[in-house]
Amino acid sequence: MSVGELSPDDTEATTGAAGDVAGAAAELVAGMMLRPWGQVSPSVYETGRVVALAPWLTGHEERIAYLLGARNTDGSWGGPGGYGLVPTLSATDALLSLLPPGPARTSDEPATDAADGPRPGAPAPATPEEITRAARQGLRVLADRLNGTAEDGPGGLPDTPAVEHIVPSLVALINERLAGPAGRESGLSAYGPLPLPAGMGHDGTRRIRAALESGAKLPAKLPHALEIAGPSAAGTRSVQPTEIGTVGASPAATAAWLGRHARRPDAADAGDAGDAGDAGDMRDAADAAVGADGADGEPGGSESRRLEGLARGHLEAVVRRHGGPVPVGLPITVFERGWVLSWLLRAGVPVEAPPEMVADLRAAIGPAGTPAGPGLPADADTTSVALYALALLGAPYEPASLWVFHTGTHFATWPGEQGSSVTVNAHVLDAFGEYAARCPGAASRYRRPIGETAAWVRDRQRPDGSWSDRWHASPYYATACCALALDEHGGEASAGAVRAAVEWVLATQRPDGSWGRWEGTAEETAYGLQVLLMTRWRDDPRCARAAALGHAYLVGRAGADHPPLWHDKDLYTPVAVVGAAVLAAGHLAATRLPPSAQAR
What we know:
- The protein is mainly alpha-helical.
- It has helices at 11-15, 21-34, 44-53, 60-69, 85-97, 128-152, 163-179, 181-186, 203-214, 251-258, 278-291, 303-322, 333-346, 355-364, 380-392, 422-438, 443-459, 475-489, 495-507, 522-534, 541-557, 575-592, and strands spanning 566-567, 571-572.
- Strands 1-2 form a two-stranded antiparallel ribbon.
- It starts with 10 loop residues before the first helix and ends in an 8-residue tail after the last helix.
Protein backbone atom coordinates (compact mmCIF):
# COMPACT_ATOMS: atom_id res chain seq x y z
CA MET A 1 0.00 0.00 0.00
CA SER A 2 1.28 3.43 -0.90
CA VAL A 3 1.08 6.34 1.49
CA GLY A 4 -2.31 7.96 1.14
CA GLU A 5 -4.15 4.85 -0.03
CA LEU A 6 -6.65 3.28 2.35
CA SER A 7 -5.88 -0.31 3.23
CA PRO A 8 -8.72 -2.84 3.09
CA ASP A 9 -7.82 -3.62 6.70
CA ASP A 10 -8.54 -0.07 7.90
CA THR A 11 -12.06 -1.16 8.85
CA GLU A 12 -12.43 0.78 12.06
CA ALA A 13 -11.38 4.14 10.65
CA THR A 14 -13.23 3.75 7.38
CA THR A 15 -16.59 3.19 9.06
CA GLY A 16 -16.02 5.45 12.02
CA ALA A 17 -16.81 2.53 14.31
CA ALA A 18 -14.19 3.27 16.91
CA GLY A 19 -11.11 4.26 15.08
CA ASP A 20 -9.21 7.32 14.09
CA VAL A 21 -11.62 9.12 11.77
CA ALA A 22 -9.32 12.11 11.56
CA GLY A 23 -6.46 9.81 10.62
CA ALA A 24 -8.51 8.12 7.91
CA ALA A 25 -9.52 11.52 6.53
CA ALA A 26 -5.89 12.60 6.56
CA GLU A 27 -5.01 9.46 4.59
CA LEU A 28 -7.59 10.33 1.97
CA VAL A 29 -6.25 13.85 1.63
CA ALA A 30 -2.65 12.62 1.51
CA GLY A 31 -3.64 10.20 -1.25
CA MET A 32 -5.08 13.04 -3.30
CA MET A 33 -1.85 14.98 -2.96
CA LEU A 34 0.31 11.97 -3.79
CA ARG A 35 -1.82 10.89 -6.75
CA PRO A 36 -3.20 14.15 -8.13
CA TRP A 37 -4.62 12.51 -11.26
CA GLY A 38 -7.10 10.66 -9.08
CA GLN A 39 -7.91 7.15 -7.89
CA VAL A 40 -10.23 5.38 -10.32
CA SER A 41 -11.14 1.72 -10.83
CA PRO A 42 -10.15 -0.07 -14.05
CA SER A 43 -12.69 -0.10 -16.87
CA VAL A 44 -13.55 -3.03 -19.12
CA TYR A 45 -14.67 -0.68 -21.88
CA GLU A 46 -11.57 1.50 -21.78
CA THR A 47 -9.18 -1.42 -21.38
CA GLY A 48 -10.77 -3.17 -24.35
CA ARG A 49 -10.27 -0.09 -26.50
CA VAL A 50 -6.62 0.18 -25.50
CA VAL A 51 -6.06 -3.52 -26.29
CA ALA A 52 -7.44 -2.99 -29.79
CA LEU A 53 -5.93 0.45 -30.42
CA ALA A 54 -2.52 0.20 -28.75
CA PRO A 55 -1.11 -3.36 -28.86
CA TRP A 56 2.33 -1.71 -28.73
CA LEU A 57 1.68 -0.23 -25.27
CA THR A 58 3.37 -1.72 -22.24
CA GLY A 59 1.11 -4.11 -20.32
CA HIS A 60 -0.69 -5.57 -23.33
CA GLU A 61 -0.77 -9.10 -21.91
CA GLU A 62 -1.93 -7.79 -18.54
CA ARG A 63 -4.84 -6.06 -20.24
CA ILE A 64 -5.80 -9.23 -22.09
CA ALA A 65 -5.65 -11.19 -18.84
CA TYR A 66 -7.80 -8.55 -17.15
CA LEU A 67 -10.47 -8.80 -19.84
CA LEU A 68 -10.53 -12.58 -19.68
CA GLY A 69 -10.78 -12.50 -15.90
CA ALA A 70 -13.52 -9.84 -15.75
CA ARG A 71 -16.19 -11.89 -17.53
CA ASN A 72 -19.55 -12.57 -15.96
CA THR A 73 -20.74 -16.16 -15.71
CA ASP A 74 -22.75 -15.86 -18.94
CA GLY A 75 -19.74 -14.64 -20.92
CA SER A 76 -20.70 -10.98 -20.85
CA TRP A 77 -18.91 -8.06 -19.23
CA GLY A 78 -20.10 -5.14 -17.15
CA GLY A 79 -23.11 -4.42 -14.98
CA PRO A 80 -26.68 -5.71 -15.00
CA GLY A 81 -29.15 -5.12 -17.81
CA GLY A 82 -28.32 -2.42 -20.31
CA TYR A 83 -25.11 -1.55 -18.45
CA GLY A 84 -23.47 -4.64 -19.90
CA LEU A 85 -23.82 -3.77 -23.59
CA VAL A 86 -21.01 -1.22 -24.02
CA PRO A 87 -18.34 -3.14 -22.05
CA THR A 88 -19.31 -6.42 -23.76
CA LEU A 89 -19.02 -4.80 -27.18
CA SER A 90 -15.62 -3.35 -26.33
CA ALA A 91 -14.16 -6.51 -24.78
CA THR A 92 -15.46 -8.73 -27.58
CA ASP A 93 -14.03 -6.46 -30.26
CA ALA A 94 -10.71 -6.35 -28.39
CA LEU A 95 -10.50 -10.15 -28.37
CA LEU A 96 -11.44 -10.32 -32.06
CA SER A 97 -8.61 -7.88 -32.81
CA LEU A 98 -6.16 -10.42 -31.38
CA LEU A 99 -7.13 -13.22 -33.76
CA PRO A 100 -4.62 -13.86 -36.57
CA PRO A 101 -5.84 -13.08 -40.10
CA GLY A 102 -4.63 -16.46 -41.34
CA PRO A 103 -4.83 -19.99 -39.92
CA ALA A 104 -5.06 -19.99 -36.13
CA ARG A 105 -1.85 -20.18 -34.14
CA THR A 106 -1.14 -23.27 -32.14
CA SER A 107 -1.48 -22.84 -28.40
CA ASP A 108 2.28 -22.93 -27.83
CA GLU A 109 2.93 -19.85 -29.97
CA PRO A 110 3.23 -16.65 -27.94
CA ALA A 111 0.65 -13.92 -28.42
CA THR A 112 3.29 -11.21 -28.05
CA ASP A 113 5.27 -9.76 -30.94
CA ALA A 114 8.21 -11.99 -31.72
CA ALA A 115 10.55 -9.03 -31.81
CA ASP A 116 9.65 -8.01 -28.28
CA GLY A 117 9.28 -11.40 -26.66
CA PRO A 118 7.41 -11.93 -23.40
CA ARG A 119 7.97 -9.08 -20.98
CA PRO A 120 9.51 -10.11 -17.64
CA GLY A 121 6.81 -10.38 -15.00
CA ALA A 122 3.96 -10.41 -17.51
CA PRO A 123 1.25 -13.07 -17.20
CA ALA A 124 1.43 -16.10 -19.44
CA PRO A 125 0.02 -15.11 -22.85
CA ALA A 126 -3.55 -16.20 -23.47
CA THR A 127 -3.81 -18.99 -26.00
CA PRO A 128 -5.70 -18.55 -29.28
CA GLU A 129 -8.21 -21.09 -28.01
CA GLU A 130 -8.89 -19.06 -24.87
CA ILE A 131 -9.29 -15.86 -26.83
CA THR A 132 -11.56 -17.46 -29.43
CA ARG A 133 -13.70 -19.12 -26.78
CA ALA A 134 -14.19 -15.87 -24.86
CA ALA A 135 -14.95 -13.97 -28.07
CA ARG A 136 -17.51 -16.59 -29.06
CA GLN A 137 -19.26 -16.28 -25.68
CA GLY A 138 -19.31 -12.50 -26.00
CA LEU A 139 -20.77 -12.73 -29.50
CA ARG A 140 -23.54 -15.02 -28.30
CA VAL A 141 -24.51 -12.55 -25.61
CA LEU A 142 -24.36 -9.65 -28.05
CA ALA A 143 -26.46 -11.43 -30.64
CA ASP A 144 -29.18 -12.04 -28.06
CA ARG A 145 -29.11 -8.52 -26.63
CA LEU A 146 -28.84 -6.63 -29.90
CA ASN A 147 -31.51 -8.66 -31.61
CA GLY A 148 -33.77 -7.68 -28.71
CA THR A 149 -32.90 -3.98 -28.83
CA ALA A 150 -33.24 -3.99 -32.62
CA GLU A 151 -36.93 -4.61 -32.04
CA ASP A 152 -37.50 -2.71 -28.80
CA GLY A 153 -35.22 0.26 -29.41
CA PRO A 154 -32.43 1.67 -27.24
CA GLY A 155 -34.77 2.76 -24.45
CA GLY A 156 -33.39 0.05 -22.17
CA LEU A 157 -29.84 1.39 -22.45
CA PRO A 158 -28.65 3.66 -19.65
CA ASP A 159 -27.98 7.32 -20.37
CA THR A 160 -24.18 7.08 -20.36
CA PRO A 161 -21.86 9.51 -22.18
CA ALA A 162 -21.58 9.05 -25.95
CA VAL A 163 -23.54 5.78 -25.95
CA GLU A 164 -25.28 6.88 -29.17
CA HIS A 165 -21.86 6.94 -30.89
CA ILE A 166 -20.05 4.15 -29.01
CA VAL A 167 -22.56 1.40 -29.76
CA PRO A 168 -22.74 1.99 -33.54
CA SER A 169 -18.96 2.35 -33.85
CA LEU A 170 -18.28 -0.91 -31.97
CA VAL A 171 -20.98 -2.85 -33.81
CA ALA A 172 -19.43 -1.72 -37.10
CA LEU A 173 -15.95 -2.76 -35.95
CA ILE A 174 -17.11 -6.18 -34.85
CA ASN A 175 -19.03 -6.77 -38.07
CA GLU A 176 -15.96 -5.78 -40.09
CA ARG A 177 -13.78 -8.24 -38.18
CA LEU A 178 -16.34 -11.05 -38.47
CA ALA A 179 -16.53 -10.56 -42.23
CA GLY A 180 -12.74 -10.60 -42.60
CA PRO A 181 -10.22 -13.44 -42.75
CA ALA A 182 -9.91 -13.75 -38.97
CA GLY A 183 -13.66 -14.14 -38.56
CA ARG A 184 -13.82 -16.78 -41.28
CA GLU A 185 -10.78 -18.74 -40.09
CA SER A 186 -11.98 -18.78 -36.48
CA GLY A 187 -15.50 -19.84 -37.38
CA LEU A 188 -16.96 -16.77 -35.69
CA SER A 189 -18.31 -15.12 -38.84
CA ALA A 190 -21.61 -16.97 -38.35
CA TYR A 191 -22.44 -14.54 -35.54
CA GLY A 192 -22.42 -11.55 -37.87
CA PRO A 193 -23.59 -9.13 -38.85
CA LEU A 194 -24.81 -7.84 -35.50
CA PRO A 195 -27.77 -5.42 -35.72
CA LEU A 196 -27.96 -1.94 -34.24
CA PRO A 197 -30.56 -1.04 -31.63
CA ALA A 198 -33.58 0.63 -33.21
CA GLY A 199 -33.13 4.37 -33.32
CA MET A 200 -29.35 4.19 -33.60
CA GLY A 201 -27.39 4.73 -36.78
CA HIS A 202 -23.97 5.54 -38.18
CA ASP A 203 -24.68 9.05 -39.46
CA GLY A 204 -23.44 10.78 -36.33
CA THR A 205 -20.15 8.89 -36.32
CA ARG A 206 -19.65 9.60 -40.02
CA ARG A 207 -20.09 13.33 -39.40
CA ILE A 208 -17.56 13.23 -36.57
CA ARG A 209 -15.03 11.41 -38.75
CA ALA A 210 -15.50 13.89 -41.56
CA ALA A 211 -14.93 16.77 -39.15
CA LEU A 212 -11.74 15.19 -37.86
CA GLU A 213 -10.40 14.55 -41.35
CA SER A 214 -11.02 18.17 -42.29
CA GLY A 215 -9.42 19.51 -39.13
CA ALA A 216 -12.66 21.14 -37.95
CA LYS A 217 -13.09 21.93 -34.28
CA LEU A 218 -15.10 19.41 -32.28
CA PRO A 219 -17.63 20.09 -29.53
CA ALA A 220 -15.73 20.25 -26.25
CA LYS A 221 -17.17 17.03 -24.84
CA LEU A 222 -16.38 14.78 -27.84
CA PRO A 223 -12.60 14.32 -27.37
CA HIS A 224 -13.37 12.19 -24.29
CA ALA A 225 -14.74 9.56 -26.71
CA LEU A 226 -12.40 10.23 -29.63
CA GLU A 227 -11.92 6.48 -30.16
CA ILE A 228 -15.34 6.29 -31.84
CA ALA A 229 -13.77 7.92 -34.92
CA GLY A 230 -11.48 4.98 -35.67
CA PRO A 231 -8.54 5.72 -38.00
CA SER A 232 -9.81 9.26 -38.54
CA ALA A 233 -8.75 10.08 -34.98
CA ALA A 234 -5.07 9.30 -35.52
CA GLY A 235 -3.05 12.51 -35.41
CA THR A 236 -6.09 14.68 -36.13
CA ARG A 237 -5.53 18.43 -36.00
CA SER A 238 -8.99 18.86 -34.46
CA VAL A 239 -7.76 17.60 -31.09
CA GLN A 240 -4.41 17.87 -29.40
CA PRO A 241 -3.03 16.35 -26.21
CA THR A 242 -2.84 18.61 -23.19
CA GLU A 243 0.53 19.46 -21.70
CA ILE A 244 0.30 16.39 -19.48
CA GLY A 245 -0.29 14.26 -22.58
CA THR A 246 -3.91 13.23 -22.22
CA VAL A 247 -6.51 13.51 -24.96
CA GLY A 248 -9.96 13.99 -23.48
CA ALA A 249 -8.89 12.64 -20.07
CA SER A 250 -9.29 9.19 -21.62
CA PRO A 251 -6.67 6.47 -22.24
CA ALA A 252 -8.77 5.16 -25.14
CA ALA A 253 -9.05 8.60 -26.74
CA THR A 254 -5.32 9.15 -26.27
CA ALA A 255 -4.52 5.79 -27.87
CA ALA A 256 -6.87 6.58 -30.77
CA TRP A 257 -5.13 9.91 -31.37
CA LEU A 258 -1.76 8.15 -31.46
CA GLY A 259 -2.97 5.42 -33.83
CA ARG A 260 -2.66 1.67 -33.73
CA HIS A 261 0.88 1.48 -35.08
CA ALA A 262 2.62 4.02 -32.85
CA ARG A 263 5.96 2.77 -31.66
CA ARG A 264 6.47 1.95 -28.00
CA PRO A 265 9.41 3.66 -26.27
CA ASP A 266 11.50 0.74 -25.02
CA ALA A 267 12.78 2.71 -22.05
CA ALA A 268 9.29 3.29 -20.62
CA ASP A 269 8.74 0.09 -18.68
CA ALA A 270 5.57 -0.19 -16.65
CA GLY A 271 6.76 -3.11 -14.59
CA ASP A 272 7.39 -1.09 -11.43
CA ALA A 273 4.77 1.42 -10.39
CA GLY A 274 6.94 2.93 -7.69
CA ASP A 275 5.76 5.80 -5.52
CA ALA A 276 7.03 8.76 -7.50
CA GLY A 277 3.50 10.02 -8.14
CA ASP A 278 1.55 10.65 -11.31
CA ALA A 279 3.57 13.61 -12.54
CA GLY A 280 6.90 11.85 -12.03
CA ASP A 281 5.69 8.73 -13.83
CA MET A 282 4.46 10.81 -16.77
CA ARG A 283 7.69 12.82 -17.04
CA ASP A 284 9.85 9.68 -17.04
CA ALA A 285 7.77 7.96 -19.70
CA ALA A 286 7.36 11.09 -21.81
CA ASP A 287 11.10 11.75 -21.81
CA ALA A 288 11.69 8.21 -23.05
CA ALA A 289 8.93 8.53 -25.65
CA VAL A 290 10.21 11.80 -27.08
CA GLY A 291 13.79 10.59 -27.00
CA ALA A 292 12.84 7.51 -29.03
CA ASP A 293 11.15 9.57 -31.70
CA GLY A 294 12.57 11.13 -34.84
CA ALA A 295 15.32 10.08 -37.18
CA ASP A 296 17.85 12.37 -35.57
CA GLY A 297 17.21 10.97 -32.11
CA GLU A 298 16.95 14.44 -30.63
CA PRO A 299 14.24 15.01 -28.01
CA GLY A 300 11.62 17.60 -28.85
CA GLY A 301 11.80 17.92 -32.63
CA SER A 302 8.71 19.13 -34.40
CA GLU A 303 5.60 20.12 -32.49
CA SER A 304 3.72 17.06 -33.74
CA ARG A 305 6.47 14.77 -32.49
CA ARG A 306 6.57 16.58 -29.18
CA LEU A 307 2.84 16.08 -28.72
CA GLU A 308 3.08 12.44 -29.74
CA GLY A 309 5.78 11.96 -27.14
CA LEU A 310 3.63 13.55 -24.47
CA ALA A 311 0.67 11.34 -25.37
CA ARG A 312 2.73 8.14 -25.37
CA GLY A 313 4.35 9.14 -22.11
CA HIS A 314 0.97 9.79 -20.54
CA LEU A 315 -0.33 6.38 -21.55
CA GLU A 316 2.78 4.67 -20.21
CA ALA A 317 2.34 6.52 -16.91
CA VAL A 318 -1.31 5.49 -16.62
CA VAL A 319 -0.39 1.86 -17.32
CA ARG A 320 2.44 2.03 -14.82
CA ARG A 321 0.01 3.30 -12.21
CA HIS A 322 -2.68 0.67 -12.84
CA GLY A 323 -0.59 -2.36 -13.77
CA GLY A 324 -1.95 -2.82 -17.30
CA PRO A 325 -5.72 -2.20 -17.24
CA VAL A 326 -6.78 1.43 -17.53
CA PRO A 327 -9.57 3.57 -16.05
CA VAL A 328 -12.28 5.21 -18.10
CA GLY A 329 -11.42 8.75 -17.06
CA LEU A 330 -8.14 10.23 -15.84
CA PRO A 331 -7.13 12.79 -14.61
CA ILE A 332 -10.08 13.75 -12.37
CA THR A 333 -8.16 16.09 -10.08
CA VAL A 334 -10.76 18.77 -9.34
CA PHE A 335 -13.67 16.32 -9.31
CA GLU A 336 -11.99 14.06 -6.77
CA ARG A 337 -10.86 16.87 -4.47
CA GLY A 338 -14.21 18.65 -4.54
CA TRP A 339 -16.28 15.56 -3.76
CA VAL A 340 -13.94 14.13 -1.10
CA LEU A 341 -13.67 17.39 0.81
CA SER A 342 -17.38 18.20 0.57
CA TRP A 343 -18.49 14.73 1.75
CA LEU A 344 -16.15 14.92 4.74
CA LEU A 345 -16.73 18.53 5.74
CA ARG A 346 -20.51 18.38 5.37
CA ALA A 347 -20.63 15.44 7.78
CA GLY A 348 -18.38 17.19 10.29
CA VAL A 349 -15.39 14.89 9.79
CA PRO A 350 -12.28 16.63 11.15
CA VAL A 351 -10.08 17.18 8.13
CA GLU A 352 -7.38 19.68 7.26
CA ALA A 353 -6.86 20.42 3.58
CA PRO A 354 -3.31 21.48 2.68
CA PRO A 355 -3.14 25.17 1.73
CA GLU A 356 -1.84 24.28 -1.72
CA MET A 357 -4.85 22.03 -2.32
CA VAL A 358 -7.22 24.82 -1.38
CA ALA A 359 -5.30 27.25 -3.59
CA ASP A 360 -5.35 24.81 -6.51
CA LEU A 361 -9.09 24.27 -6.11
CA ARG A 362 -9.67 28.00 -6.16
CA ALA A 363 -7.33 28.58 -9.10
CA ALA A 364 -9.10 25.91 -11.15
CA ILE A 365 -12.33 27.94 -11.27
CA GLY A 366 -12.29 30.37 -14.18
CA PRO A 367 -14.99 32.58 -15.67
CA ALA A 368 -16.47 29.54 -17.43
CA GLY A 369 -16.14 27.18 -14.46
CA THR A 370 -13.79 24.26 -14.08
CA PRO A 371 -13.46 20.81 -15.64
CA ALA A 372 -13.14 17.61 -13.64
CA GLY A 373 -9.57 17.40 -14.91
CA PRO A 374 -7.28 18.34 -17.81
CA GLY A 375 -8.64 17.36 -21.22
CA LEU A 376 -12.30 17.70 -20.25
CA PRO A 377 -14.69 20.64 -20.77
CA ALA A 378 -15.74 22.76 -17.82
CA ASP A 379 -18.96 21.49 -16.26
CA ALA A 380 -21.48 22.79 -13.75
CA ASP A 381 -21.24 19.70 -11.54
CA THR A 382 -17.52 19.93 -10.83
CA THR A 383 -17.68 23.71 -10.63
CA SER A 384 -20.49 23.76 -8.08
CA VAL A 385 -18.99 21.04 -5.88
CA ALA A 386 -15.60 22.79 -5.93
CA LEU A 387 -17.30 26.06 -4.94
CA TYR A 388 -19.23 24.31 -2.18
CA ALA A 389 -16.06 22.70 -0.84
CA LEU A 390 -14.28 26.06 -0.84
CA ALA A 391 -17.12 27.60 1.17
CA LEU A 392 -17.01 24.76 3.70
CA LEU A 393 -13.25 25.27 3.97
CA GLY A 394 -13.85 28.87 4.93
CA ALA A 395 -12.69 30.25 1.58
CA PRO A 396 -15.98 31.12 -0.18
CA TYR A 397 -15.68 32.27 -3.75
CA GLU A 398 -18.34 34.04 -5.79
CA PRO A 399 -20.22 31.37 -7.82
CA ALA A 400 -20.85 33.68 -10.78
CA SER A 401 -19.22 31.21 -13.19
CA LEU A 402 -22.21 28.90 -12.79
CA TRP A 403 -24.40 31.25 -14.83
CA VAL A 404 -22.57 30.05 -17.95
CA PHE A 405 -24.51 26.79 -17.53
CA HIS A 406 -27.96 28.30 -16.95
CA THR A 407 -30.52 27.38 -19.59
CA GLY A 408 -33.28 29.71 -18.44
CA THR A 409 -35.02 26.96 -16.48
CA HIS A 410 -32.19 24.98 -14.86
CA PHE A 411 -28.44 24.44 -14.92
CA ALA A 412 -27.01 22.14 -17.60
CA THR A 413 -23.97 19.97 -16.98
CA TRP A 414 -22.37 21.86 -19.86
CA PRO A 415 -23.79 24.25 -22.47
CA GLY A 416 -25.83 22.42 -25.07
CA GLU A 417 -26.41 19.32 -22.92
CA GLN A 418 -29.04 16.94 -24.23
CA GLY A 419 -31.10 16.02 -21.20
CA SER A 420 -30.67 17.27 -17.65
CA SER A 421 -29.32 16.23 -14.26
CA VAL A 422 -31.00 16.68 -10.89
CA THR A 423 -27.74 16.13 -9.00
CA VAL A 424 -26.03 18.91 -10.97
CA ASN A 425 -28.80 21.27 -9.92
CA ALA A 426 -28.69 20.02 -6.33
CA HIS A 427 -24.98 20.80 -6.27
CA VAL A 428 -25.62 24.24 -7.74
CA LEU A 429 -28.14 24.77 -4.93
CA ASP A 430 -25.43 23.79 -2.43
CA ALA A 431 -22.96 26.22 -4.00
CA PHE A 432 -25.39 29.15 -4.07
CA GLY A 433 -26.81 28.41 -0.64
CA GLU A 434 -23.50 27.97 1.16
CA TYR A 435 -22.00 31.07 -0.45
CA ALA A 436 -25.01 33.15 0.56
CA ALA A 437 -24.81 31.79 4.11
CA ARG A 438 -21.10 32.58 4.38
CA CYS A 439 -21.36 35.98 2.69
CA PRO A 440 -24.56 37.62 4.00
CA GLY A 441 -23.96 40.72 1.91
CA ALA A 442 -24.48 38.64 -1.22
CA ALA A 443 -27.51 36.74 0.05
CA SER A 444 -30.06 38.97 -1.66
CA ARG A 445 -28.49 38.31 -5.08
CA TYR A 446 -28.93 34.56 -4.69
CA ARG A 447 -32.31 34.41 -2.98
CA ARG A 448 -34.26 34.05 -6.23
CA PRO A 449 -31.93 31.53 -8.00
CA ILE A 450 -31.83 29.46 -4.81
CA GLY A 451 -35.62 29.32 -4.73
CA GLU A 452 -35.94 28.55 -8.44
CA THR A 453 -33.30 25.84 -8.37
CA ALA A 454 -34.85 24.22 -5.31
CA ALA A 455 -38.26 24.21 -7.00
CA TRP A 456 -36.80 22.65 -10.16
CA VAL A 457 -35.22 19.85 -8.11
CA ARG A 458 -38.44 19.27 -6.13
CA ASP A 459 -40.48 19.03 -9.33
CA ARG A 460 -38.35 16.09 -10.48
CA GLN A 461 -38.83 13.95 -7.41
CA ARG A 462 -40.40 10.59 -8.17
CA PRO A 463 -43.78 9.68 -6.66
CA ASP A 464 -42.07 7.25 -4.26
CA GLY A 465 -39.87 10.04 -2.82
CA SER A 466 -36.62 9.19 -4.61
CA TRP A 467 -34.67 10.85 -7.42
CA SER A 468 -32.66 9.28 -10.26
CA ASP A 469 -29.89 10.86 -12.28
CA ARG A 470 -27.79 10.51 -15.43
CA TRP A 471 -24.42 10.54 -13.64
CA HIS A 472 -24.93 7.62 -11.28
CA ALA A 473 -26.62 4.25 -11.54
CA SER A 474 -28.08 4.36 -8.03
CA PRO A 475 -31.12 6.38 -6.95
CA TYR A 476 -29.57 6.51 -3.47
CA TYR A 477 -26.82 8.82 -4.71
CA ALA A 478 -29.30 11.11 -6.45
CA THR A 479 -31.66 11.08 -3.48
CA ALA A 480 -28.89 11.92 -1.02
CA CYS A 481 -27.65 14.81 -3.17
CA CYS A 482 -31.15 16.26 -3.61
CA ALA A 483 -32.46 15.67 -0.09
CA LEU A 484 -29.41 17.17 1.62
CA ALA A 485 -29.36 20.23 -0.64
CA LEU A 486 -33.10 20.85 -0.23
CA ASP A 487 -33.00 20.31 3.52
CA GLU A 488 -30.15 22.78 4.01
CA HIS A 489 -30.93 25.40 1.37
CA GLY A 490 -34.44 24.76 0.03
CA GLY A 491 -36.42 26.34 2.86
CA GLU A 492 -39.77 25.26 4.29
CA ALA A 493 -41.15 24.75 0.78
CA SER A 494 -38.84 21.75 0.51
CA ALA A 495 -39.78 20.10 3.82
CA GLY A 496 -42.32 17.77 2.24
CA ALA A 497 -39.91 16.62 -0.44
CA VAL A 498 -37.22 15.90 2.14
CA ARG A 499 -39.70 14.00 4.30
CA ALA A 500 -40.75 11.91 1.30
CA ALA A 501 -37.09 11.09 0.61
CA VAL A 502 -36.60 9.98 4.22
CA GLU A 503 -39.68 7.76 4.02
CA TRP A 504 -38.41 6.20 0.79
CA VAL A 505 -35.04 5.44 2.37
CA LEU A 506 -36.72 3.87 5.39
CA ALA A 507 -39.03 1.79 3.18
CA THR A 508 -36.27 0.41 0.95
CA GLN A 509 -33.75 -0.76 3.54
CA ARG A 510 -32.76 -4.36 3.03
CA PRO A 511 -33.09 -7.00 5.78
CA ASP A 512 -29.33 -6.96 6.38
CA GLY A 513 -29.41 -3.22 7.07
CA SER A 514 -27.99 -2.16 3.71
CA TRP A 515 -29.31 -0.16 0.80
CA GLY A 516 -28.68 -0.73 -2.89
CA ARG A 517 -30.22 -0.77 -6.34
CA TRP A 518 -29.14 -4.30 -7.33
CA GLU A 519 -27.63 -5.49 -4.08
CA GLY A 520 -26.62 -3.91 -0.83
CA THR A 521 -23.39 -1.91 -1.09
CA ALA A 522 -21.35 0.14 1.33
CA GLU A 523 -21.54 3.18 -0.95
CA GLU A 524 -25.32 3.18 -1.26
CA THR A 525 -25.71 2.39 2.43
CA ALA A 526 -23.59 5.46 3.15
CA TYR A 527 -26.01 7.59 1.12
CA GLY A 528 -28.97 6.12 3.00
CA LEU A 529 -27.33 6.95 6.32
CA GLN A 530 -26.65 10.51 5.23
CA VAL A 531 -30.31 11.08 4.36
CA LEU A 532 -31.42 9.70 7.73
CA LEU A 533 -28.82 11.43 9.89
CA MET A 534 -28.29 14.80 8.18
CA THR A 535 -31.84 16.00 7.51
CA ARG A 536 -34.31 17.59 9.91
CA TRP A 537 -35.97 14.24 10.66
CA ARG A 538 -32.84 12.67 12.13
CA ASP A 539 -34.44 12.58 15.61
CA ASP A 540 -37.23 10.30 14.41
CA PRO A 541 -36.73 6.99 16.30
CA ARG A 542 -37.26 5.09 13.06
CA CYS A 543 -34.30 6.91 11.52
CA ALA A 544 -32.12 5.99 14.48
CA ARG A 545 -33.07 2.32 14.30
CA ALA A 546 -32.54 2.11 10.54
CA ALA A 547 -29.26 4.03 10.77
CA ALA A 548 -27.99 1.68 13.48
CA LEU A 549 -28.69 -1.31 11.23
CA GLY A 550 -27.02 0.44 8.31
CA HIS A 551 -24.00 1.29 10.42
CA ALA A 552 -23.68 -2.34 11.50
CA TYR A 553 -23.71 -3.33 7.83
CA LEU A 554 -20.94 -0.82 7.08
CA VAL A 555 -18.80 -2.18 9.89
CA GLY A 556 -19.29 -5.72 8.60
CA ARG A 557 -18.46 -4.73 5.02
CA ALA A 558 -15.46 -2.56 5.78
CA GLY A 559 -12.54 -3.34 3.50
CA ALA A 560 -14.65 -4.82 0.70
CA ASP A 561 -14.31 -3.47 -2.83
CA HIS A 562 -16.86 -0.93 -4.01
CA PRO A 563 -18.68 -2.03 -7.19
CA PRO A 564 -18.71 0.53 -10.02
CA LEU A 565 -21.86 2.67 -9.96
CA TRP A 566 -20.77 6.01 -11.45
CA HIS A 567 -21.61 6.85 -15.07
CA ASP A 568 -18.99 7.40 -17.71
CA LYS A 569 -18.57 5.49 -20.95
CA ASP A 570 -18.55 2.48 -18.62
CA LEU A 571 -19.52 2.24 -14.95
CA TYR A 572 -16.60 3.13 -12.68
CA THR A 573 -15.67 3.73 -9.05
CA PRO A 574 -13.94 6.97 -8.01
CA VAL A 575 -12.22 5.19 -5.14
CA ALA A 576 -11.34 8.17 -2.92
CA VAL A 577 -14.75 9.80 -3.46
CA VAL A 578 -16.62 6.66 -2.43
CA GLY A 579 -14.24 6.14 0.48
CA ALA A 580 -15.01 9.65 1.69
CA ALA A 581 -18.78 9.05 1.48
CA VAL A 582 -18.47 5.87 3.53
CA LEU A 583 -16.17 7.51 6.06
CA ALA A 584 -18.59 10.43 6.41
CA ALA A 585 -21.52 8.08 7.01
CA GLY A 586 -19.60 6.13 9.63
CA HIS A 587 -18.67 9.35 11.39
CA LEU A 588 -22.30 10.48 11.38
CA ALA A 589 -23.41 7.21 12.95
CA ALA A 590 -20.66 7.38 15.57
CA THR A 591 -21.47 10.96 16.55
CA ARG A 592 -25.25 11.25 16.10
CA LEU A 593 -26.59 7.88 17.20
CA PRO A 594 -26.97 7.17 20.92
CA PRO A 595 -24.19 4.86 22.18
CA SER A 596 -26.68 2.03 22.70
CA ALA A 597 -27.59 2.11 19.00
CA GLN A 598 -24.08 2.19 17.56
CA ALA A 599 -22.62 -0.92 15.92
CA ARG A 600 -20.00 -2.77 17.87
